[in-house]
Design brief:
This protein has about 250 residues and is α/β, with parallel strands linked by helices. A 6-stranded parallel beta sheet has the order 3-4-2-1-5-6, with helices on both faces.
């Protein structure tokens, strides 16, 4: 998954290139870092750092092609099963990013949130997350959400445990509870991109992806470019999203 050690450069003024789909929520399962590295005879940590560069490119490109919310899968709860050294490297990269790049987020109008469990993260990382979220809370141009120690099933379960206290029982009120669980909010995903050749959700934003359009790519995450992101958004704009209704051409 993504190792978010990023360097934000100047993000151009938001001018969505896709008029049909402004203010998109795009979720990305950034898969393939480790395989990218091992195929080159490099340690897996090198793949995670290369993946961070891919994330930087995507963050820079997102606002100008109509993306208002970008959720990147940084660390799955299932990834704790990986070797401890690899997991610790991921956590160090995230901590380093938060310490060094929060000022850039403020300057570029990027609001940063972390969704997922925090109780299993090191105390210093939890504090860095809280500090970064508070400092960037008013960023208007891009809401960057990093899913860290994240499981969609766990989030839905936690929301269900709280839901019995809610007086209004509806899908909308459940979504509100889920937003509270996520801390960084919860909105429907318009476009879900997965790199690395796999075609599954891997416990990522299950509730929010109910009507999302999916784009699966063979390309591994470190090779993903701004042009790939733009192509995925253009592919999304060509699809007719009926949400179970008839297409306009038939309904008319």
């Amino acid at each position: 998954m993504l190792m978010p050690h990023l360097t934000l450069r100047q993000i151009p003024a938001a001018q969505p290139a896709i008029a049909q789909a402004p203010r998109l929520h795009v979720g990305i399962i950034s898969d393939g870092n480790g395989r990218w590295a091992t195929s080159r005879g490099l340690p897996r940590s090198a793949g995670h750092r290369a993946g961070a560069e891919a994330a930087r490119r995507v963050i820079e490109a997102a606002p100008r092609i109509g993306i208002h919310t970008l959720t990147l899968f940084a660390l799955s709860s299932a990834n704790w099963k990986r070797p401890a050294a690899e997991v610790h490297a991921i956590l160090r990269l995230l901590h380093e990013y938060l310490l060094t790049e929060t000022t850039h987020c403020i300057d570029e109008g990027v609001r940063l949130s972390v969704i997922g469990r925090r109780d299993r993260l090191p105390a210093t990382l939890r504090q860095a997350i809280a500090d970064s979220e508070a400092a960037t809370a008013k960023g208007p141009r891009l809401h960057l959400r990093l899913a860290m120690d994240y499981s969609a099933r766990e989030a839905i379960y936690q929301a269900a445990c709280r839901f019995y206290k809610v007086t209004e029982l509806s899908p909308e009120s459940f979504s509100t509870v889920l937003q509270e669980v996520h801390r960084g909010g919860s909105t429907e995903v318009d476009l879900l991109i997965r790199t690395g050749g796999e075609q599954r959700l891997s416990d990522f934003l299950l509730w929010e992806c109910a009507f999302a359009e999916f784009v699966f790519l063979q390309k591994r995450w470190p090779d993903f470019t701004a042009a790939d992101l733009d192509a995925a958004v253009k592919e999304f704009s060509r699809r007719e999203r009926t949400r179970g209704a008839l297409p306009d051409a038939i309904a008319g």
